[in-house]
Structure formats: structure tokens, C-alpha cells
Design a protein that fits this description.
Layout (H helix, E strand, L loop, with lengths): L1 H17 L7 H25 L2 E2 L2 E4 L2 E4 L9 E4 L6 E2 L4 E5 L2 H58 L6 H54 L2 E3 L4 E6 L16 E5 L4 E7 L11 E6 L6 E10 L24 E8 L2 H6 L6 E6 L7 H14 L5
Antiparallel strand pairs: 1-14, 2-10, 3-9, 4-6, 5-8, 6-7, 8-9, 10-13, 11-12, 11-14, 12-13
Helix pairs in contact: 1-2, 3-4
Length: 374
């Protein structure tokens, strides 16, 4: 595009000397050169900062490695989808052997039933202990009455009741009171045992819930709309828990994002919501519309790796680029783009709108050129 602008200016200079018949001398030629430098320089600077373009871009999506949901390796029992087959979120992809997980669920279910029966027995024990406390207190109250009567008679007429009789009634009352204390302690022990069993029941329920979850995870389902892009497993093979050795890779087609890279100084006028046009190599003669989502103000060149030596200053530095995240307006078209697709991106800022025309023309020229095998 810069060459085209230069040729246009040279055409204007040629017309000035040939058509308008300007005198050709050192002054006129040098003036044309100086004007050309300032005019072309001003146009290029205004264009670059108001409607920057880049061919450093790519189509990105979430790529999810599929590994074993459990902490152990399991045998793949059945595969339900083919490679590159489109699926919806929640569709069944494959299953692993369920026998060990079903056994665990059965064991936890039996343990939970036993815990519930134990609670019923302890509840009955608490009821019995409560009844015994009431019975002991009633007996204690009766013994207290008998003692008070005998003691009262003895106090009024010592000859009417012997001292031994009074002592026997007192001992009987003390024994009844001790029985009350024992019954109360037994009731408290039964209640504590019931509370402990109820807590144990909650633990059993949690263990069963975990076992059921592990059983459900034997059915691996699609985490989003998309397809499996790389099957490296077959029925009868073992799953893996290592991400770098995943048995499959799932490509999420629910959200497609364009990442375009610009020089840092060209980003000063770009804001979220600015209009974007993109020409994709995979779709010549088509201009996709979008908007700026965000400027990713970070780059790995600024991250220092933790190691046992001090970084060498001469090795540090940055190439001066930052990425811009872009969302396309046509979601259906975005899903059809190949992952890692390339092209040319133009962002139209709110500054220097007259210069936007240059990027629009240049972008359409790029789109037409993508018809060529280059």
C-alpha cells in the first residue's frame, strides 16, 4: 500500500512537470522531493496510528486435553464418536470400565444402610435411657417421701419409730438417688453415641456421593460444542492421567477469538469496542467484521524464569509487540474458521478517520490476493 501511495504521488509529480509544464530545475525537483517526503510521511504516520494493520494474527479456541477423570488409569470400554465428528455439550464421547467404581458404590451404599440401622438402634437406646431416668427419678421421689415420713415421725415421737428404721429409709433414698445419677449418665452416653453415629452417617453419605461421582465420570462427555481433533486411543486401551499424553484433544467451538499482534506504539489509539475488519486466507474475497475485546498488555518476554543463576542483562529485551483480542460478529462464520487460521487484520480507531480508507482498500487488495497460490 505504501508503494501504491508513492506511485500516486510520483504520478502527480509527473503530471505537474509534463502537463502543467513546470520548469525542471534543481529547485523544482528538490521541492517535489521534500514535499513528497513530508506528504508521504504524514500520510503513512497518520494511517499507521489511526487504522493499523497486521498480518501477525491467528484464530484461537480453547483446546482441552482429555485425560482420565479418576486418579487411576482405566480401560476404555467404548468409544461413541469419531475423530472430527461435531458434538454438542453433554454428548457422550467415550466410557471407561465401570466395574471397580460400581463396586465402590455398592460398598458405600451397604455401609450407609448399616449406619442408618445403627442410628435407629441408638435412637431406641436413647428412648430407653430416657424412660429409665424418669423411672429412677420416680423411685427416688417415692424413697424421699418414705424417708421424710419416717424421719418426721421419729422427730415427733422417738419411741414410735426406731432409729434403725430411719437409717434404712435414708439409705434406700440414697440408693434411689444414685440410681438416678447412673440413669442420667447412661442417657447422656446414649445421646453422645447417637450424635457420633449421626456424624458418621454424614461421612458415609459424603463417601457414597463421591463414589457415585466417580462412577458418573466413567462416562466422559463433551465439555462444550465442538469435536475431538486428535484421537490417540482405542477401545481396550488404558486411559492416562498425564496431560502431555492425553488420549484425545477436544476443540471447543463455542467461542472463537482472533489474536492479532501489533507494535506497541501503534496501540495508543486502540480501545475496546473499536471496529475491526479481517481478511482470512482460508476465505478469499470475504471481509469479516468484528470488534476489539481487549489489549493483552503482557508478553512472555517480560517474565524471568526462576533458576539458580542471575539473568544476563544482555539477553533481556523485547521485540516490542503486544496482542489484541478480537471477537467476530458472525458466530457461525467464526466456527467454520480453521484453528490457527491466518490473514490480515485492520483496526479502525476513533482517531484519523479519513485515513481509514487506506486500510479498507489495502485489506480488500489482500483479500483478492489470497486467491493466488502464494
Amino acid at each position: 500500500m505504501i508503494m501504491l501511495i508513492t506511485l500516486c504521488y510520483l504520478g502527480c509529480v509527473y503530471a505537474a512537470f509534463k502537463v502543467v509544464k513546470l520548469r525542471v530545475n534543481a529547485m523544482s525537483v528538490s521541492t517535489a522531493v521534500v514535499i513528497g517526503v513530508f506528504v508521504l510521511g504524514g500520510i503513512i504516520i497518520g494511517w499507521k496510528f489511526s487504522a493499523p494493520m497486521t498480518q501477525k494474527m491467528t484464530v484461537t479456541r480453547a483446546v482441552i486435553p482429555l485425560v482420565a477423570s479418576q486418579n487411576t488409569k482405566e480401560v476404555i470400554k467404548k468409544i461413541h464418536v469419531k475423530r472430527d465428528q461435531r458434538v454438542k455439550k453433554g454428548d457422550l464421547l467415550y466410557e471407561v470400565e465401570t466395574t471397580p467404581f460400581q463396586n465402590t458404590v455398592d460398598q458405600k451404599t451397604a455401609g450407609l444402610s448399616e449406619a442408618r440401622l445403627n442410628i435407629q438402634a441408638l435412637e431406641a437406646a436413647v428412648t430407653t435411657a430416657t424412660y429409665k431416668v424418669e423411672q429412677a427419678r420416680a423411685s427416688s421421689s417415692a424413697a424421699k417421701v418414705d424417708y421424710d415420713i419416717v424421719a418426721g415421725i421419729r422427730s415427733d415421737d422417738p419411741s414410735a419409730v426406731s432409729k434403725l428404721k430411719v437409717e434404712i429409709e435414708r439409705l434406700s433414698y440414697d440408693s434411689a438417688q444414685a440410681t438416678v445419677d447412673i440413669a442420667v449418665a447412661s442417657q447422656a452416653s446414649a445421646e453422645y453415641a447417637l450424635i457420633s453415629a449421626q456424624n458418621a452417617l454424614q461421612a458415609k453419605e459424603a463417601e457414597l456421593s463421591t463414589a457415585q461421582l466417580e462412577l458418573e465420570r466413567t462416562q466422559i462427555k463433551a465439555p462444550a460444542d465442538g469435536h475431538i481433533a486428535n484421537w490417540q486411543a482405542a477401545e481396550g486401551t488404558m486411559t492416562t492421567t498425564v496431560i502431555t499424553s492425553a488420549q484425545a484433544t477436544f476443540q471447543d467451538l463455542s467461542k472463537t477469538t482472533i489474536v492479532a499482534v501489533f507494535r506497541q506504539n501503534l496501540l495508543k489509539n486502540i480501545e475496546s469496542g473499536d471496529a475491526v475488519e479481517i481478511a482470512f486466507k482460508s476465505h478469499p474475497n470475504h471481509i469479516a467484521l468484528g470488534t476489539v475485546d481487549a489489549i493483552l498488555e503482557f508478553t512472555g518476554e517480560g517474565q524471568l524464569t526462576s533458576e539458580g543463576v542471575i539473568p544476563v542483562a544482555a539477553t533481556l529485551g523485547s521485540k516490542g509487540f503486544l496482542a489484541v483480542r478480537i471477537n467476530l460478529e458472525d458466530k457461525a462464520f467464526a466456527r467454520e474458521l480453521p484453528l490457527g487460521g491466518a490473514g490480515t487484520t485492520a483496526i479502525y480507531t476513533k482517531a484519523g478517520k479519513p485515513f481509514h480508507l487506506i486500510s479498507k482498500i489495502a485489506l480488500r487488495m489482500k483479500s483478492w490476493l489470497y486467491n493466488l497460490p502464494i
